[in-house]
Every structure is written in structure tokens, then in C-alpha cells.
Design a protein that fits this description.
The complex is a heterodimer of chains A (775) and B (492).
Chain A lengths: L1 H22 L3 H18 L1 H5 L4 E8 L4 E7 L1 H24 L6 H20 L3 H21 L4 H31 L6 H5 L2 H6 L3 H15 L8 H5 L4 H10 L4 H13 L3 H22 L5 H22 L2 H32 L15 H15 L5 H15 L4 H23 L19 H19 L5 H13 L15 H18 L1 H13 L1 H4 L2 H23 L4 H22 L15 H19 L3 H21 L3 H24 L9 H25 L7 H9 L8 H9 L1 H24 L12
Antiparallel strand pairs in A: 1-2
Helix pairs in contact in A: 1-2, 1-5, 2-4, 4-5, 4-12, 4-16, 4-20, 4-21, 5-6, 6-7, 7-10, 10-13, 10-14, 12-16, 13-15, 14-15, 14-19, 15-16, 15-19, 16-17, 16-18, 16-20, 16-21, 17-19, 17-20, 18-19, 18-20, 18-22, 19-22, 26-30, 27-28, 28-29, 32-33
Chain B lengths: L6 H7 L1 H20 L6 H22 L5 E2 L4 E2 L2 H27 L7 H17 L3 H19 L6 H32 L4 H7 L6 H18 L7 H8 L2 H25 L4 H24 L4 H23 L5 H37 L14 H4 L1 H14 L6 H16 L2 H27 L14 H19 L1 H8 L4
Helix pairs in contact in B: 2-3, 2-5, 3-4, 4-5, 4-11, 4-14, 4-19, 5-6, 5-11, 6-7, 6-11, 7-9, 7-10, 8-11, 9-11, 9-12, 10-11, 10-13, 11-13, 11-14, 12-13, 12-18, 13-14, 13-17, 13-18, 14-16, 14-17, 14-19, 16-18, 16-19, 17-18, 17-19, 19-20
């Protein structure tokens, strides 16, 4: 069922451009039905899953490697799936209005569905490799989404930046997952792996596995210091930002941590890594968000902060913290999705996103205002919204954390104060007060532009007033899946007056004060950003690295790939010398060399000297002809050596080949220009050294080869067996019997050569045509 | 000996090669004597011959006997058969590409297809060699045809330069290889690979060590492993694109299947060569990918990318060293074998596909070679742009493509074999690779075309079909790798 559901979505993605051609922007409405139907179908299965009966299926994929298309929807997957599909349907609707008239809107729907498939596949995968495939697919789909629908040139390079950073994390994740599977005995099944907690945490590779997997999660979820790609990627259009960069894709890292928690969590390393990253990101995101003036930048950095909070909660690794994390994921997706869409609508209808310009839109855009305010209140954590419940739970979890409770609570309060301020800036500032002049006269957008954010905002209120709707059915199964044990979750709006409530009140009050101070904070923040620390951020480091790599590559290409054949041959020979020389040195023993020249006959010595002289003269000669002639001496010398050592046939062949080569070379050289320039003395010295060392290595090899005394088995064999093959003449027998196939081959070669010659002869008349061949 | 194989059994085993040889001669003769004018007959007959050979090869793979032929000098096992299938598929795709390319450039000379078919047979011999001498002969058959083909565009000085560079450096490589074979023979008294495995252990002499060193140098040249790679970019750029495409696929498959064979039988003395292979793998992955980043010419970029891919395959070779280290090592060795074969299939599809896109586009009269030429391709030729997108994703090893499936198999093999260091380098350099492959996607998809849409490409059957087949394979085997795995999995 899961696989077929994914296939239905694939069909939808493929059909999207066609559908768009047929019915225009309304194609989005039709396509939104796909995720909606799946959403409802899944919601219907909610009670089953809440009772601990996950939907699971398995189709063989590469059976011999133990990789199946295995899917399993448990509580955790269900929570994510409902968010992905539900918000996905709304985004399709929203996108049909937001990008109306965009020439590539049809493809946009296609990519959005592709992305949805990737997300759904990732959260429901029950095989680590399958999970990874979908994980990477989300990155590719987002790359295409951002790249195609850019609003400025910078958006495109940010898309590449986002992809490269997450791809780096992806590679780490792959390594981590493969190591994990090897550590658990070669199984790639996720549910099997998750059951082997003791084996995993006790394995010597555990630290490496954890580091790699968390690295993947942190890059995807924009954790400090990799947070910089997320605000950059926000230059994508509003539907993409709302969907990818707040509600779904950036939560993939959160999902991964939660998914892997049963096997990997519960160690000091897990707690240390995740809380550190979480706290740093939470604070950094909040601090960076607060002074921004662009609606989307505000939301982007606040998302970074929220992601940090979730990682921190998962890092705390208590039941309470996991509950808080799961609830906060849902709450954040609801309010941030709504706010992004509302911000997009404002941008769409007024032409600006600058909060210093926007003001008093409430009258002109009442429904968008309602959506933004509803979501904003949830973000600030005010009752009776679900954001309030979530924040209460958050504080409770942080306070209850062992050892580090006070510290993380303080950090959490600080971040939340700033979040309240940001929430107020985003959700109230543009709508409150008197109407300002904007590039476009503001008016309410079409229904597709306000209905989706309003729906999400209303859900925030609904879940706040009736938390019973989600606690047992949705949050509890998710928490159970992460903790790998049955867990009860009961959410209430009112807990009575306690320390958590006091913290909440203090947060909101301080947040309001901070909100009023924003005009003073902005210039100060800009000064910091332009001075030292601001220019040393990780984003700069990334650019610097990339630029350095490109420059290094250019330099290396220039120096290594100079195109000179002399250089190439030089490298070839020197590597040979180095490799063989090194190999010889490793096993060196003087005894391996045989210095026995006792059977050297005088005429052999003369021949040797002649050959050496020939080689030296060939290298030194200024004339090509002379060089070739002296090379000939070497060649004929070799032929003679063959002859002397009992291989007359070989000698004959060598003689013929040598003669032929000589003739051809002379013919070729006749056509070459004179030697125009010679190597510089320095080059000549280098060449000489290289040549001598190559000669030395070969000489050593020859001396070693003197050890060899191969037995002449073959000759005796032929002599003994030729009679058996019914022949007296050994040579004849060899030709027609022992080596019949060789003879056949030789005949074939001769025939082929004859054909070739024939071809050349027949070709002659056609030479008059222009492309006949060389003259 | 009763029941000993006759010459016919031997010949039957190499029937696909015989078909290739006959086709070559028919083409050579037919082109000058029989059908002088109808130049389309050349590629058509070449395709027919290759298809017949492919059919036989597939049939023989299904009814695999694993026999050794010609006095044990050929080993027609699964590795030989599957690599032959890969080579024939490469040849098929390359013939289709050449059909379009040669016609547009007036290069339709009759010797092109015979040369190609002969080189396929040489490459297949390398893949089937159970004897170092046969391996060398196969290598020479492959290489000589390639030297000539690289210089096929005789009026183009760059093509000539490519040819002469390739020839000279290749000659050095062959000499080193031959010397290495001689030394290995000297040390072990055999050139048969299956014998070698049982003899090397007792023969760890300086001669063997030096011989193995020279084998590495010689094979490294053919496989374009750094630092023996320098010919690659110049030859890839200078040779006619149809030749480059073919050469990239066939030479890589042949060189690595030969390496798999050689180092598989040298596994007992892995301590001799493992360090060298590891060092070469790291060098090749790092510098192959790094240098590719700086390229502005797609052909050159693909040349460096082919070097980088050689680096990944070297990781598999290094993993073979652990074949004899207990059950986990054996499993890793098997994975490395099957994984690299899968990878070679993937490599040939995606590389020929990428070159095919260039050839298809160059059909418009302008030669598409620079990355700049691809600007905004998705606007005026979306289908081709999407095909290129798939090839780039696949080359980058990004799911859900075939390239990923191949790469992770090698990655998995390396990690199970304990080559952690190499796996790390592989992962990190993959990120570098993603950068330049995605740059092409970026240029194609996100940048505006610089000039008005060029005249639509005239329909070219060969290139279109070749690109289509490659793209289909890249996606199909990426999503359903099990289909191909039934083939590559035979090699255990």
C-alpha cells in the first residue's frame, strides 16, 4: 500500500506539467487532492498505529544484498507523514495562487510532488539504504525547486550552496549507516538494527557511527555552524520556503535523530553532541533573527533557532524531552508554515517584505492578518494556542533535565524571549498601525493565498483548546516509537500556577520589551555584521573553501596539464622508476644480483659496446637521420643477440621489423621540418638523469633475472611427441598439429592483410574526391 | 585424453568474438567493393553484428559453463561473459553515436566501425584472459584500434595530436606491462592467472615484486589512474567525440576487468601491492575530482571525471586484497567484484550518455563542447536537458540513479573490507564531484540562454536512440538495481 501510494504520487508528479497545460493554475487544486486523500487514508489508520500495530510492507529490491523496498509506518513516521501530506496539500493550493502565471508552474507542481514523495519515502523507509536514497532525493528536489523559481541570481548560488552542504552531510550519513549495518551483522533493515541497542553502543565503531549520522542530521537541519545555508536558501519563493524550509525538509535531521534514537541514544556522547549543537543553534538562530528587517530572513533564522531547540530536546534524551520535541515539531510546522505563507501573501500583494515599511495591513488584508496573528500568538507561546502548551512542556523538560537543567533552561528562556520579539515583529508589525505606502497598493489575495495559512493557524487554536485531539492519538505513538517503549502523553492547557507558568509569563513580558527595543538593536547588529566577527562566519569559511578549491584546481591544471609530450613521457618514466625502484628497495638483498660475466665472449663485448655507443649517439645527435641510424645499430644489435642465444627465428623477425621501422622512420622524417628548437641545457640534464635512472632500474632487473634458469621443457616435449602425432618432421608437426590454431590464425591475418591491401588498391580511383585521405 | 575439449568447443566459447571479427571483415571489404555509396549500411551492419554477438553472449551467460578455453589461456567465467556484455553494449551505444557524428562531419570512412568492433573484441579478450600474454594481446588489439580512432579526424590537428600522444604514452605503458609480465613469469614460471594464485606465495622474490610494480604501472596507464593519467584530458578533448565516448567506456571496462583478474589472483601477496594501490586510489580520487572543478570544456571535464571514477574503482581493487582475510574479507572481496562490475555498467551508460548529449546537440551545426554552450538548455530543449541532468546526477553518485547504486556497493565493500581510509576519501571527494556535476545542471537549468534558441536539432536517429537508451538504463537500474544485479551478481 505504501509503495503504491508513492507510485500514485509519482504518477501525479509526472502528470503535473500536462495537467497544467490543460487547466492552468487550477491543476494545483486537482493535484492537492492526491496528498489530501493519502492524508485522510492515513488518518483513518491512526487508531491502529496508536495501538502499536504499525503498517509494514516489504518488496524485494536487491535480495542478494539484503536490501528491500521495506516500509514501516509507526507512530513517528505517522506524525511526520501527516504533517508532510497535510501541509503539502495546502502548499499545492497556495502555490497555484502564488505562482499563477509563472511559465513553469506546471513543472513546479511536479517538483513539489517529487519532493513530497522523497519526504514520505524517507520517513516511512524501513531500510537504511532506502532511507538514504530518499534523503538525497529531498536534496535534489529542493535544489530544482529553489533553482527554477529564483527571485534573484543569488537564489541560484544559494541553492547550490544548500545542496553541497547537505550533500556533505549525506555522505557522512551514508558512511554512518553502512558502518552501522556492518556493526550489527550486515543487516540493512532499520527495524532490526534499532532493536540491537546494546550491540551498537558497545561496538568500537559506535563513536564514529554516531558522529557520522549526527553530522548528516545536523547539516540537514541547519545546526550551527552549518546553519548558514538555510537563510540563503530562503530566497526561494514563499511556498517553497513554507514547505521545505520550515515544515518538512529541515526537519529531516530531527526525524533522523528521532528514528535512530532507539539504537544510538542513551550515551553521554549522544547527549553531549546533541545538546551542545542544539543550544548553540538555538541561541545563534534567535540572535541572528532578531535584528533582521526582511520578513523571510526573520522567519528563516527563527526556524534555525527552533530546529536547535528540537535537537536540544532530543539530546536531553528524557521521556519528557522527547514528548516536548514531538509536540514542538508539530506546533512549529503549523505556525511557521502559516507565517511563511502569510509573509508570502504580504509580499505578493504589497511588493515588499521589509518590516520597516509594512504597516497597517489589517484593514486591507483581514484574512491574512488573522492567519498571521493566529500563528504568531502560537509562536509567542500564548494561551489558548497550542504553542503555549508546547512551550510549557518545553520548559518543563528543560528544567527536569539532569545536571544541565538550569543551564539549558536559561538558554531556552533567552532564546524564547527573542522568539517572542520576532513573533511580534512578524505577526503584528506589518498589520498593526497606520497604512504605509508600499510598492503595490495592498489588498487581500485570492482565496488560495489566505485559506492555507488560515487553516494552519486555526488548527493551532483548535489543538490548543482541545489538546485531547492529538495527545493520545498522534504524539504518544510518536514518543513511544522514539523511546522504543509504550509512553502515555496527556496534554493540558492549564497546569495551575507553577514555576513553568512563571517562566512563561516572564518570557512573554521580556519578549515584549525586547520587541519595543528592536529599532535600537538593528543598527548595532549591522555594525557587528560588517565588522570583524560578522565577516568571519561559517558562510565566509564555506565561500573561502570553495573559492580556494577552484583556484587550486585551476593552478594544478595549469601546472600539471601543460600539454607537452616531453613532460608527459618524463612523468611516465619517472613514475615507473619510482614504483619499480621502491618495490625493489623493499625486498632488496645484494645476493639477488648476479655479477657473473665469465661466459661473456669477446665479440659479444664488441657488440655491446657498439649498441651502447649507438644509444648514446642517438640521444646526443643533432640530426634526425643520424639519430635514426644509430638507433638502428641498437636494433640490429638486439637481433644479433637473439641469434647468438639460440633464437634464430626471433632474430630474423627482429631484423625484418628493424629494417622496416628504419625505412618508415626515414620516410617520415623526410617530411618533417628541421629541428627548430632544442631543450635547454637544464632540461637536457634532467632528461639525462631520468634516462640514466630508468636504465639503472632496468639493468638491476636484468641482473636479478640472471638468477633464472627456465627448463627447456617445450623442446623436449615436441621431439618426444611428434611421432605420436604421426609425423617425423618436428617442424611440420608443430605447424599442423601442436600449433594448428596458430597457423590458422596466421593464415587469417594474412588474408586480412591481403584484404586490406586489396582495399587500398580498389580505393585508388576514389582518391579524386575531396575527403579521400592523406596525400 | 577422452572427453577433452575439441577445437570446436573452444571456438564456440568465443563465438561472440568471431562474430565481431567476421563483421569487421565484411564491413572492410563491403565498404570498398560492394556498397560504395550507401554509407548508412556500415553502421547498420555493425549494429547487426554487435547485436548477434550480444545475443550469443547473453545466451552463453545464461547457460554458463565457466570453461577455460584454448589450453586454459581464456577463462570464460561469469566475469568474462558479463564484461563482454558490458563491452558489447558500450559498442552498440557508441556505434549509434558515431552514426550521427561521423555523418555530420564527413568522416564516414569505412574503417571506423571495423576498428571499433575489433577493439571491442580486444577488450573482451582482456576480460576473458586467464593468461597474462592473452591479456597483453587483448590490450594491444584494443589500444591500436583506439590510437587510430583518436586520430580519425585527420584534418583536425587536435585529433592528430591526441592520437600521437595516446600512441606514444600507450607504447610506454605497453612496454612496462610486458616487462612486468616477463618478470612475473620469471618469478613464478607461469603466465596463467589461475596458476599464479597458487604459486606467488612461495615466490616473493625481488623479481616478483618488481614485476607486480610494472604491472601496476602498465595497467594504470590504460585505466587512467593518476599519475599515469596525463594523456587522458588531451586525448578526450582532441579525439572526435564519438571516439571519446567509446574509448571512455570500453577502455575503462577492459582495464578494470583485467585489473580485477590480475589482482584477484595476486591476492595471496597483497602485502606487496596493497600500499601502492591505496596510494594511487587516493591520488586519483583527490586530484581527478579537484582538477575537474577547473574545467570549462565538457569533454575535458568528463576526462577528469573518468579519472576520478577510476579512483573509485581502485578502491574496489584495494578491497580485493582482503579477499583471503577470513569470512568478512571474502564477503568484501565478492562485493568489490560485483560492485565494480555494476559500477562499470553504470559508468558506461552515464558517460556515453553525457557524450551522446554533446553529439546530439552538435548536430545543430555548432560544436557543443564548452560548459557555456549548455546555458539555459532546459528552456529550448528540455528533454535533452533532463537526460543530461540524469547523467550528471548519476556521475555524481546521487540517488536514485545507477551511479549511486554502483558507488555505494563499492563503498560498502570498502567499509566491510576494512578500507576505512579509502572510504572516507571516497565520500569526501564525492562532495567535490557533486560540485562540478551540479554546475552543469546549474548552467543548463538555472541560467538564461545567452543567445536566441538555436535552430532545432535535425532529427538524428543514432544519437537520439543512444541517449535515450543510456538515460533509460541510468534511471531504470537506479530504481530497480536488482535487474542488473542478476547479471553482475554472477561474478562471485
Amino acid at each position: 500500500m505504501i509503495l503504491s501510494a508513492l507510485l500514485v504520487l509519482v504518477a501525479g508528479a509526472a502528470a503535473a506539467p500536462l495537467l497544467y497545460r490543460w487547466m492552468g493554475a487550477r491543476a494545483g487544486w486537482v493535484l492537492a487532492l492526491l496528498p489530501l486523500v493519502l492524508f485522510l487514508a492515513l488518518a483513518a489508520r491512526l487508531p491502529d498505529i496508536a495501538d502499536g500495530r504499525p503498517i509494514a510492507e516489504r518488496t524485494p529490491w536487491i535480495p542478494s544484498l539484503g536490501i528491500d523496498l521495506a516500509f514501516r509506518i509507526d507512530g513517528l513516521a505517522l506524525l511526520f507523514l501527516l504533517v508532510i501530506l497535510g501541509i503539502g496539500a495546502l502548499i499545492l493550493l497556495y502555490g497555484s495562487g502564488y505562482l499563477k502565471g509563472h511559465p513553469l508552474q506546471g513543472r513546479f507542481f511536479g517538483y513539489l510532488l517529487l519532493f513530497m514523495i522523497a519526504m514520505c519515502g524517507m520517513v516511512s523507509a524501513d531500510n537504511t539504504i532506502l532511507l538514504f536514497v530518499f534523503w538525497e532525493l529531498t536534496g535534489i528536489a529542493s535544489y530544482l525547486l529553489i533553482g527554477f523559481y529564483h527571485e534573484d541570481a543569488k537564489a541560484r548560488s544559494s541553492a547550490l550552496q544548500a545542496l553541497l552542504v547537505t550533500f556533505l552531510g549525506g555522505q557522512a550519513l551514508l558512511a554512518g549507516l553502512v558502518l552501522l549495518s556492518i556493526a550489527t551483522g550486515g543487516s540493512f533493515s532499520l527495524s532490526e538494527t534499532l532493536e540491537q541497542r546494546e550491540q551498537v553502543t558497545a561496538h568500537p565503531w559506535y563513536p564514529a557511527i554516531l558522529l557520522l549520522i549526527l553530522f548528516g542530521a545536523f547539516t540537514k537541519s541547519a545546526q550551527f555552524p552549518f546553519h548558514f545555508w538555510l537563510p540563503g536558501a530562503m530566497s526561494a519563493p514563499a511556498p517553497v520556503s513554507a514547505y521545505l524550509h520550515s515544515a518538512t525538509m529541515v526537519n529531516a535531521g530531527i526525524f533522523l535523530m528521532a528514528r535512530m534514537a532507539p539504537a544510538l541514544a542513551g550515551t553521554e556522547l549522544w547527549r553531549g553532541l546533541a545538546t551542545t549543537a542544539g543550544v548553540a543553534t538555538m541561541l545563534a538562530g534567535a540572535l541572528l533573527a532578531y535584528p533582521q528587517a526582511d520578513l523571510k530572513k526573520l522567519l528563516a533564522y527563527s526556524t534555525v533557532s527552533a530546529l536547535g531547540t528540537m535537537i536540544l530536546l532530543l539530546g536531553l534524551d528524557t521521556v519528557l524531552a522527547v514528548k516536548a520535541a514531538m509536540l514542538f515539531f508539530l506546533v512549529h510546522a503549523l505556525y511557521k508554515g502559516a507565517l511563511f505563507m502569510a509573509a508570502g501573501t504580504v509580499d505578493h500583494e504589497t511588493g515588499t517584505r521589509d518590516v520597516r515599511v509594512l504597516s497597517g495591513l489589517a484593514k486591507a488584508m483581514p484574512l491574512t492578518t488573522a492567519a498571521a496573528v493566529g500563528a504568531g500568538l502560537s509562536m509567542c507561546g500564548l494561551p489558548p494556542l497550542v504553542g503555549f502548551i508546547s512551550k510549557e512542556l518545553l520548559y518543563e523538560a528543560k528544567l527536569a533535565a539532569p545536571y544541565i537543567g538550569p543551564a539549558v533552561t536559561a538558554a531556552g528562556v533567552a532564546a524564547n524571549v527573542l522568539m517572542v520579539a520576532v513573533g511580534l515583529i512578524v505577526a503584528f508589525r506589518p498589520f498593526h498601525g497606520t497604512l504605509n505606502h508600499t510598492p503595490k497598493p495592498p489588498h487581500e489575495g485570492k482565496w488560495t493565498l489566505w485559506l492555507p495559512p488560515l487553516t494552519l493557524a486555526l488548527l493551532g487554536i483548535l489543538f490548543g483548546l482541545a489538546p485531547g485531539l492529538i495527545d493520545r492519538g498522534l504524539i504518544a505513538p510518536a514518543v513511544s516509537a522514539v523511546r522504543a517503549q509504550e509512553t502515555e502523553v496527556t496534554l493540558k492547557l492549564w497546569h495551575g500556577i507553577n514555576s513553568v507558568l512563571m517562566l512563561s509569563i516572564a518570557t512573554v513580558a521580556t519578549g515584549f520589551v525586547v520587541f519595543r527595543l528592536r529599532h535600537r538593536a538593528r543598527p548595532a547588529a549591522e555594525r557587528i555584521a560588517q565588522s570583524g566577527p560578522g565577516s568571519l562566519g561559517p558562510a565566509r569559511l564555506y565561500e573561502w573553501l570553495l573559492e580556494g578549491m577552484v583556484q587550486c584546481a585551476k593552478f594544478l591544471t595549469h601546472t600539471l596539464q601543460h600539454g607537452s609530450l616531453r613532460g608527459y613521457v618524463g612523468v611516465a618514466v619517472s613514475v615507473m622508476v619510482a614504483v619499480t625502484g621502491a618495490a625493489l628497495l623493499r625486498v632488496w638483498s645484494p645476493a639477488a644480483l648476479v655479477w657473473d660475466f665469465s661466459d661473456l665472449r669477446p665479440y659479444e663485448g664488441v657488440l655491446l659496446i657498439a649498441m651502447i655507443a649507438g644509444a648514446v649517439f642517438a640521444a646526443l645527435s643533432n640530426s634526425r637521420l643520424a639519430a635514426i641510424a644509430s638507433l638502428g645499430i641498437v636494433g640490429f644489435g638486439v637481433a644479433l643477440v637473439f641469434g647468438m642465444y639460440g633464437a634464430p627465428d626471433l632474430a630474423l623477425t627482429q631484423l625484418l621489423v628493424e629494417t622496416l621501422t628504419l625505412v618508415i622512420l626515414v620516410l617520415v622524417i623526410y617530411r618533417l621540418p628541421r629541428i627548430a628548437s632544442r631543450s635547454t641545457p637544464r632540461q637536457q640534464i634532467a632528461d639525462a638523469i631520468l634516462a640514466l635512472s630508468a636504465g639503472a632500474v632496468i639493468t638491476v632487473l636484468l641482473l636479478i633475472a640472471q638468477n633464472l634458469h627456465p627448463e627447456p621443457v617445450l623442446r623436449d616435449y615436441f621431439v618426444q611427441n611428434s611421432l605420436e602425432a604421426k609425423g617425423r618432421n618436428v617442424v611440420n608437426v608443430i605447424l599442423v598439429d601442436f600449433r594448428a590454431l596458430d597457423t590458422l590464425g596466421e593464415i587469417t591475418v594474412l588474408a586480412a592483410a591481403a584484404l586490406g591491401v586489396g582495399g587500398l588498391i580498389w580505393l585508388r580511383p576514389r582518391r579524386k574526391q575531396p575527403e579521400g585521405g592523406e596525400s | 585424453m577422452p572427453g577433452s575439449p575439441t577445437i570446436w568447443d573452444d571456438l564456440t566459447l568465443i563465438l561472440p568474438l568471431i562474430v565481431l571479427w567476421i563483421t569487421s571483415f565484411v564491413l572492410l571489404l563491403g565498404d570498398v567493393v560492394v556498397w560504395k555509396k550507401n554509407r548508412d549500411l556500415n553502421p547498420i551492419l555493425a549494429i547487426v553484428g554487435t547485436l548477434i554477438a550480444l545475443g550469443i553472449a547473453v545466451y552463453q551467460t545464461i547457460s554458463l559453463t565457466g570453461d577455460k578455453a584454448f589450453a586454459r589461456s581464456l577463462n570464460m567465467d561469469a566475469l568474462a561473459q558479463v564484461s563482454m556484455i558490458a563491452l558489447l553494449v558500450t559498442g552498440l551505444l557508441a556505434i549509434l553515436l558515431a552514426w550521427t557524428y561521423l555523418k555530420n562531419r564527413g568522416l564516414e570512412r569505412g574503417e571506423y566501425y571495423p576498428l571499433m568492433l575489433l577493439s571491442v573484441s580486444g577488450a573482451a579478450l582482456m576480460g576473458a584472459a586467464n593468461d597474462l600474454i592473452v591479456l597483453f594481446i587483448g590490450l594491444e588489439i584494443l589500444s591500436f584500434a583506439l590510437y587510430v580512432m583518436a586520430g580519425f579526424s585527420r584534418s583536425d590537428i587536435r585529433s592528430e595530436e591526441a592520437s600521437i600522444k595516446y600512441f606514444l604514452l600507450g607504447a610506454f605503458a605497453s612496454a612496462f606491462l610486458l616487462y612486468g609480465i616477463a618478470l612475473v613469469y620469471g618469478a613464478t614460471q607461469t603466465t596463467q592467472l589461475s596458476e599464479l594464485a597458487s604459486r606467488v606465495h612461495s615466490a616473493q622474490t625481488p623479481m616478483l615484486v618488481a614485476g607486480i610494480g610494472l604491472l601496476i604501472v602498465g595497467l594504470g596507464f590504460k585505466a587512467a589512474v593518476i599519475p599515469f593519467h596525463q594523456w587522458t584530458p588531451d586525448v578526450y578533448e582532441g579525439a572526435p567525440t564519438s571516439v571519446t565516448a567509446y574509448m571512455a567506456g570500453a577502455a575503462k571496462i577492459a582495464a578494470f576487468v583485467a585489473m580485477l583478474r590480475v589482482f584477484d589472483s595476486l591476492a595471496p601477496v597483497s602485502s606487496v601491492w596493497l600500499g601502492a594501490i591505496q596510494a594511487l586510489a587516493v591520488l586519483t580520487m583527490v586530484f581527478g575530482n579537484l582538477l575537474a572543478i577547473a574545467q570549462t570544456n565538457v569533454k575535458r571535464m568528463l576526462a577528469y571525471s573518468s579519472i576520478a571514477h577510476a579512483g573509485y574503482l581502485m578502491v574496489a581493487i584495494a578491497t580485493l586484497a582482503h579477499r583471503l582475510d577470513g569470512p568478512r574479507g571474502a564477503q568484501a572481496g565478492e562485493l568489490a567484484m560485483t560492485g565494480s562490475l555494476f559500477y562499470l555498467f553504470a559508468y558506461t551508460f552515464m558517460t556515453l550518455g553525457a557524450f551522446g548529449v554533446l553529439i546530439y546537440l552538435s548536430n545543430r551545426g555548432k560544436d557543443y563542447q564548452q560548459i557555456e554552450d549548455l546555458r539555459g538548455l532546459v528552456r529550448h530543449d528540455p528533454r535533452t536537458a533532463y537526460a543530461m541532468l540524469f547523467f550528471m546526477l548519476s556521475l555524481g553518485g546521487i540517488p536514485p540513479t545507477m551511479g549511486f547504486m554502483g558507488k555505494w556497493q563499492i563503498f560498502y565493500a570498502a567499509l566491510s573490507g576494512g578500507e576505512i581510509m579509502l572510504a572516507i576519501v571516497m565520500a569526501l571527494t564525492s562532495v567535490m564531484a557533486a560540485f562540478y556535476y551540479l554546475k552543469i545542471v546549474y548552467v543548463m537549468c538555472f541560467e538564461e540562454p545567452r543567445e536566441a534558441a538555436p535552430a532545432p536539432a535535425q532529427f538524428s536517429f543514432g544519437a537520439s536512440l543512444s541517449v535515450l537508451l543510456s538515460a533509460a538504463a541510468t534511471i531504470l537500474f537506479g530504481i530497480m538495481p536488482g535487474l542488473l544485479y542478476t547479471l553482475t551478481g554472477l561474478v562471485r
